[in-house]
UniProtKB/TrEMBL annotation:
Keywords: Membrane, Transmembrane, Transmembrane helix. The keyword tRNA processing does not apply. One of its GO terms (cellular component) is Golgi membrane. The chain crosses the membrane at residues 40-56, 62-80, 145-162. Belongs to the RER1 family. Involved in the retrieval of endoplasmic reticulum membrane proteins from the early Golgi compartment. It comes from the Eukaryota. This is Protein RER1. It is found in: Membrane. GO terms for biological process: protein retention in ER lumen; retrograde vesicle-mediated transport, Golgi to endoplasmic reticulum.
Amino acid sequence: MMNEDSSAASGGGVKKFFQRLSQTYQSTLDRSTPHTRMRWVFAGFLLLLFVLRIFIYQGWYIVCYALGIYHLNLFIAFLTPKIDPEFDPYSQDDEDEGPNLPTRSNEEFRPFIRRLPEFKFWLSVAKSTLIGLICTFFDFFNVPVFWPILVMYFITLFCITMKRQIKHMIKYKYLPFTRNKPRYQRVNDMAGPGPGSVAAGHAK
């Protein structure tokens, strides 16, 4: 009985430890959500460490190639709309080939909804880069290969994939960025100071 109680207590302690670790990890992610620039600086730092290790030790080219392919797939999903107009049966028009974002200033503003949101894109990049960096510490991942062939494969795949994505963007007239799109002010900012504030100013 005592052995069963002690094993149950130790099992419960391990479970509580992993629960606390999961909660700490999730709270850290939640706090980092609004800090977009700092998150991407951290991901870039991890990627720089990975590239420097590949360059200095002249190995793990297979890991580098796999990581590049994975990042390319993430980037394409980041640029792609959540509902692809090519396969959306409710978006087809008789006069047009699919739904378009507004092209004139008097049209309704419709935000671009990504298939892969920015936060998940960053998290996947950071996790995969960290895993790739850890793989460079194990020799069995260092498969000998002629690396210029991998570079040519990746450049070819990148060009073909981006060409297809750009054609898709031109065909359905959307931009996966919000930089030059209209932003609306708040009602309070547009209304300006109310009559109560004016009266208070006269009272002073």
